[in-house]
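RECORD TYPE: protein structure
NAME: N5-carboxyaminoimidazole ribonucleotide synthase
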Amino acid sequence: GATIGILGGGQLGRMLSVAAARLGFKSAIFEPGGDCPASHVANYHHQAEYDDEDALKRFAESVDVITYEFENIPTSALDIVEAIAPVRPGRRALKVSQDRLTEKAFLADLGLAVAPFAAVDDAVDLAEAMAEIGTPSILKTRRFGYDGKGQARLSSPDDAENALADMNGAPAILEGFVDFDFEVSVIAARGLSGDFASFPPGENIHTDGILDTTTIPARLSTQAVAEAQGMAARILQKLDYVGVMGVELFVTPMGLVVNEIAPRVHNSGHWTQNGCAIDQFEQHIRAVAGWPLGDGTHYANVVMTNLIGDAVERVPYLAQDSANAIHLYGKSEVKPGRKMGHVNRITGPA
Ligand code: ATP
Ligand code: MG
Ligand code: MG
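PREDICTED:
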């Protein structure tokens, strides 16, 4: 059988490996860390650093197709593996989404609504951006931010100096604060032959910058659901995308505003494991392996709750309720803010 190569060995890589196994594939992960979530379930673990050319070559030569669980793969590593095996989703999606500035510009070019934004490299840029965008606003590092890290909120111009200091000299982007009613995300997929499928949008609640819950269905009209899915379709089409993508949206009285895109399976899509026949992980494996896609139909309404840090201690209690499907990532060490697992609570038929 074919082998799926996965760059990254966290919980997303773990759940992709499980899905690959269910479809009869083997999986090989490339991950510098040893005792990582995906290493417990993948068939092969290439344990090496991303600057280890020989290890990258051996990895790529051992697989039929390569995918990834995070978007910050070094360009040099991609150059090496891409010369040996196809990388799906492709470079375009990575290039666009690795940098918040190129990401926002790409989305705006597509005609999608985004928060007002401006590049900020220094105090002069920030002063100009503030004059244009004003407050409230958010300064974010252009690269490597996740779970709300690398962000500083500005409620008045007086906050500028501290916010810039928080960036530690990294290139940043100032975004106008979107006064949203709530947040949703669309998990969508595009196949090798250009077919498209989307799960229904989920409604997301973040606590301390980290996704806390995703609820299906979201409080959206049929028309807004179609609009959100149509926006995702345009993004995937434009990127000639192959695989699953997470598209985060703000719901405002003026319509849907795109926050960011993630070129991979997404935490806000974990509910599909228990709400759909074909979940986001199987959908992604199908896409990168060139299979037809599942259609995104959901059969159950679900509330997904992340088990962050010592919330994982609630598992014995949560497991007593048969409506709770428990998913744990096999992480031995509990740390504050660390995603240890999630619970999908079935709330009724779709
Ligand atoms: P993720 O873990 O989803 O990748 P991230 O660190 O990349 O998160 P964002 O998604 O950009 O960060 O921001 C985190 C959260 O902060 C958003 O989900 C939203 O609640 C809030 N936020 C970000 N940008 C804005 C904005 N321009 N206006 C209002 N709220 C915002
Ligand atoms: Mg992000
Ligand atoms: Mg986000």
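COMMENT: The domain at 3-87 is CATH 3.40.50.20 (Rossmann fold).
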